[in-house]
Amino acid sequence: MEVRKYEGRDIEPLSRAASLAFGGSAEEWKEYYDPDENPRISLDHVHVIEEDGEARAGATVLPLEAFVDGEAAPMGGVAAAFAHPAYRRRGYAGKLMRTLLSDMRGRGVHISMLWPFNHSFYRAHGYELAGESIRYEINPREFETSDEQRNVRAFRDGDMPGVVAVFEGRASRHQMCVRRGAKVWERIPERKEWSLVVHERDGGIEGYILFRMTDEDEKRSVKVLNFVAATNEARAGLFSFLASYDPMDNLITYDVPSGSPLHPYLVSSHVEMNIETEFMLRLVDVEGALGHLRRESDSPLVLEVSDDGVPENEGEYTIGSGKVFRGSGAKHRVRLDVRRLAQLYAGYLPARKLAEYGLIHPDSSEALELLERLFPVGDPWVYPTDHF
Known about the structure:
The structure is a single chain. This protein is α+β, with helices and mostly antiparallel strands and 388 residues long. The chain has three domains: 2-109, Aminopeptidase, CATH 3.40.630.30; 134-277, Gcn5-related N-acetyltransferase (GNAT) (Aminopeptidase); 286-374, SCP2 sterol-binding domain (Nonspecific Lipid-transfer Protein, Chain A), CATH 3.30.1050.10. The chain is built from eleven helices and 20 strands. Helix 1 (11-22) packs across helix 2. The longest helix is centred in the N-terminal third of the chain and has 15 residues, at 92-106.
């Protein structure tokens, strides 16, 4: 078994294997591995397992950025990890994951995210669930109408800088929200199945909706892909736009962060809604990942971290004094696994609940209070169009 970087000759066997593993055609998968077609991929970040002269498995790290405490940080997005179905259960996936983690550490990428096919598999490699969303199905009549709808119009050439600014302003408030690169933004108006409307007031764009129309079970569905509003006026105008669809023939489907529920603001709260699991997070390099945070407290705290996947992460880290350093430099400490630290890092679960369930181990009530101040509950979220 050889684990190596992607080579041009791999395109045919990888595309065939990916189509068997995930569905879709081999031609569609060739586009996935084509940087001219897929603006998020870098072939230098694709790893392949070859055995007996065959490329039998592959995995990709997308070189992305995610917002951490309002600032963009490098993030490795693990995607397209698969083995040809004929060669499963041979340890290929585990070998690839260990290779990807080592490669990310070598590149100075401290955090990694993915959407799992199997939570337990990725937990074994130090990833942990770090986000949820609420998925709604809403009749258009449940949205309030507003005179602000007069400020909603179709997207025009020249609108993109305003749309990007609104997006980044809102996305940066969500821990771990994926930041879009310029090439991704360029592709959005080119997607013929997507539509974009903006709310513009006083010459400035204050919000937008990116959506697509689908037909399911003889009912048209307006699938909201991005709903971004920088002002209350934009929110009211865009809600009114959704209310304008015929309630007899249309259904609005809409995902929101779990910390920002929609139903309290609808005409009726009796709507169809489901909790959906979102991304898993891995602190590839604990010291580097903690260094991305902008957290301070009155007293420093020692985190005693265990990591059964990356032994280099094992040890003590002192945080809260305006910097992070390895070693013990404070009175109070918390013992925890790297997976629980990832959940705290994302602001997904409260420290007190993790302690109540015996999943983290503060040495005192003071230590738990410090941990709560350093890792408050947030609203982690990635917009549906940025899943990978």
